[in-house]
Amino acid sequence: MLCPHCREPLPKRSRYCPKCGFLCVAEQHSSTTQSIPPTTSARPQATTAPRVKTLPPQPVPQATMHQQPPGVSTTRHEHNCPKCGASVDPELGRCTSCGLLYGSKHRVMQQAAPATPPARPPLAPRPQSSIGQQSPGAYGTRPQYNHPKHSLPPSSFGQRPNYSSPVAMPHGGMPMPIPRVATVAASAATMPASPPLSARPYPYQTVPPVPIERGISDSGRRGLIRIVTTLLILIVCFFIGSGIYYFVTQTGTPSLPNSTADATPPSIQGVPISSTTETSATITWATNEPATSQVQYGETETYGSSTTPDTNLSTSHSVTLTGLDPNTTYNFKVISTDAAGNEATAEGELTTLATADKTPPTISGVNVSNITESSAIITWTTNESATSQVTYGKTETYGSSTTPDTKLTTSHSVTLTGLDDGTTYNFQVISKDSSGNEATSTTNQTFETKSIIPVGYQEVNRAPDFTLQKLGGGEVKLSDFRGKIVMVNFWATWCDPCVREMPHFQKVFDNPSWSREKLVILAIHVKDRADTAQSWINAQGYTFPVLLDSDGDVQTRYGITGDVGIPRTFFIDRDGIIRKVQDVSFSSQAAIEIILESL
User: Fold this and answer.
1) Can you say whether the dihedral through the CA atoms of 506, 511, 512, 514 is positive or negative?
2) If we measure between CA atoms, which residue out of 484, 452, 455, 363 comes closest to residue 414?
3) Which residues contact 200 (CB under 8 A, 6 or more apart)?
4) Can you say how many angstroms the Cα of residue 357 is from the centroid of all Cα atoms in its chain?
5) What would the pLDDT profile of 516-559 be if each residue is shown by its tens digit?
């Protein structure tokens, strides 16, 4: 197929002329003539005859028509179809006979003109924008489409349409001859009247994409070259800037005049000593700015030794001194110099540890005391502070041991409990000093627990335990006084012998020789009202403790029945054993103290 414009052969699968850019697409005509309802229009109509061939309705917007008031003539530019010779609709840009789509480059826009246009000389050729156009013979152009679903803008590839000149610029940039100007009446006589169109954009038909050559166009290639060149320039600038920055930061700034040089030495803060041994010590300190580290040291204030300077600038410093003598005092001076050469110093002293102690402590004075039927107390001494522990058992292999008392002392005391009564026990004491040297008693020692003593109110029996209310408030328990001598006296206010011996008890209670740590006096008031006993005690001015046995339970356990058996006094030793029972009243203080001294 040949291009009707330039007679250039067209590609098989495209109707786009590769030489002149003409789009050669014929429109399908409908066999049915479509009538257009008459509407009011500013265009004068000479006849009302319908057009023979009409275009099918397009779903795309229509071009805007320029309307003029009645009586004003309109100048129309006519072009002939290069294929069939019929006139081309200047508004739609297509042949009214064969439907050939006249390229957007050659479309002539309609412009209102006065009835008698003035004569004007031919216009000089106007250069057209190269955007969206293609030179003849070029194949690397944008594809045009002839499909109703796609609409292109009225101008070519973003070029705004020019409505100011009636001259159309054909392909190649040469001006087309100015079409003859005819009045509206004359045009209406030769052209069937067209129905007025609503104000809308020009319609376009699209065709399938025109195949183009593979590869990058010249303009695209030039743009790609510009982008690559720009990137290379940016990379080169980056590396040059990085090099300049590195050079400036590494070499530093030029030295300032002496008037602004740093003349302030660093400040040394705290010089603690840590990890001291017999032959070494670690000295640490801090500065307020980065500085070097060095220590001078010696047994005198002139020092004599120094460490190798650590030239690494830091604010935290640590230097270890080695090769020191045990148990020796050293004087030292720490030195720090900042980057400007300003030096700061601080002095101190340290003492190394003595040579490790390898001698165990010496144990002496091992003794067993306070032996009962179930317990015993073992004491000993050492020549240096050490821990305390006892291993014991019924044989010489022992088998039991107490929990080590880690408190370092020279006087040691350990209590053994949970023993069997009437049994012989073997034991050995152990002490360990602060250096870990352990010592044990050289010989095996033994002791025998007491046999079980029955509980009763007779002598050599264990005194029955009790808990009673104290006159004036509070409770008193007999077993709480274990380790002290206890006098338990049963009395009543109506008992004359009881009343007569009370002054002697008060004298013993007030005697400094029998302090509260040695002797406890408990006067148990039996079978009487508490207020009666309280008023009587207050009247007599007695200060020793008075207990109330209102129900008589305690006096029964101590063998006192009815009103018989009082006064009665029980002397109980430190182990809770009844050693003396007095059934009559005491006549003097001395008689009481004689019994107490025997305990």
Assistant:
1) negative
2) 363
3) 61, 62, 63, 64
4) 50
5) 889 999 999 987 788 888 899 999 999 999 999 888 889 889 98
pTM: 0.34
Q: Which residues pair with 351 in a beta bridge?
A: 329
- Give the separation between CA 184 and CA 348, rounded to whole angstroms: 119
Residue 482 pairs in a beta bridge with none
E runs forming strands in 280-393: 281-298, 305-306, 310-321, 329-337, 343-351, 363-369, 376-393
3-state secondary structure of 215: coil
Listing DSSP states for 78-136 in one string gives -EE-TTT-PEEETTTTEETTT--B--GGG--------SSPPP-PPPPPPPPP-TT---T
Q: Do the beta carbons of residue 131 and residue 156 sit within 8 Å? A: yes
- Please state, as a whole number, how many other Cβ atoms lie within 10 Å of the Cβ of residue 452: 13
Percentage with pLDDT > 90 across the chain: 41
CB atoms < 10 A from the CB of 525, how many?
A: 25
**Checking DSSP bridges between strand 79-80 and strand 94-95, what pairing results, if any?**
unpaired
Q: Smallest Cα–Cα separation from 157: which of 125, 134, 173?
A: 134
Q: Which residues pair with residue 475 across a beta bridge?
A: 469
What does the alpha-carbon distance between residue 587 and residue 306 come to, in Å, rounded to a whole number? Answer: 89
Q: Are 361 and 441 in contact (CB under 8 A)?
A: no
Task: Name the token pair of 116.
Answer: 């008698």
Residue pointed to by tokens 């030793």: 573
Which helix (DSSP H) or strand (DSSP E) does residue 244 occupy?
Answer: helix 218-251
Neighbours of 593 (CB within 10 A): 17
Q: Tell me which long-range contacts 169-173 makes (C-beta under 8 A, separation of at least 24).
A: 169/105, 169/125, 169/126, 169/128, 170/105, 170/106, 171/20, 171/21, 171/22, 171/103, 171/105, 171/106, 171/136, 172/20, 172/136, 173/125, 173/127, 173/128
